[in-house]
Amino acid sequence: MPAHTGRRIALIAHDNKKQDMLEWAEYNLPLLGRHELFATATTGRLLQDQLGLPVTCFRSGPFGGDQQIGARIAEGEIDLLVFFWDPLEPHPHDPDVKALLRVAVVCNIPVACNRATADFMISSPLMDRTHQAWDPSPGRPLPGQPRPDQPVADPPLQAVAGTG
Question: Which of 27, 99, 100, 119 registers the highest number of CB atoms within 10 A of its CB?
Answer without folding.
Answer: 100
